[in-house]
Every structure is written in C-alpha cells, then in structure tokens.
Amino acid sequence: QVQLVESGGGLVQPGGSLRLSCAASGSIVSLNAMNWYRQAPGKQRELVASMTSGGSTNYVDSVKGRFTISRGNAKNTVYLQMNSLKPEDTAVYYCNAQLQFLILGRLETQGYWGQGTQVTVSS
Fold first, then answer.
1. pLDDT of 91
2. What does the alpha-carbon distance between residue 112 and residue 17 come to, in Å, rounded to a whole number?
3. Distance between CA 26 and CA 42 in Å, rounded?
4. Which pLDDT score, from 0 to 100, does residue 25 have?
C-alpha cells in the first residue's frame, strides 16, 4: 500500500522549533511536487511550503526565513523544519505529494495526503 505518514508535531513554546516528517511507504519510484499545508481551527487550509522535483522551493510570506522544506537523502521523505515558531503557526499540518510507482511495469502517478499532525505553539 502506498501512503504518506506524518510525524513530528507537538506542543512547543513560542520561539521554539519542530521538525515535521512525511515519509512515503510502499515501493515508490519517486516523490515529487511536494507540499506542506496547514489548517487552523475555523480557517481554510493554506499552502505553507512547496518543492518541485527539481528542488525549487516556495513559501508563504508569513513563514519565510523561519520554515524550510527539504527532501531526505533516500528521496522518499519530505521534511519541514520550523524555527522561531509563533502562536499563529498553531494548526494541523498536512503533507501532500505526487507519488510515482510501478503497476505491472507501468509508471503511475497519484496525489496523496498525509494524515495530518498537530502543531501547537503556546506559552
């Protein structure tokens, strides 16, 4: 079964750091078009960070200079390093990626979502 599994959320004080992980399980060929979203209570889901398969990254203005999206050396894991966290960063964070895998020798591509991980920034 191909899926994305998230981890790394938790409770942290303002100014602290967390590192979120999103690992693709199953025999995938590649993980690309990687994104991190977040959704705060009562608000719509927003795109926080993204990375193309070529390594180009983009961030929402509110997290620039504080968050970093990266890919693991194994190429099946996406990370979101979050530094200088603020209370307004509190949300459920979701990873999203296009996964490529082989089905009967043919390359297939499908978008997947992680299950979400809670990040709470509070003193």
1. 98
2. 26
3. 34
4. 87
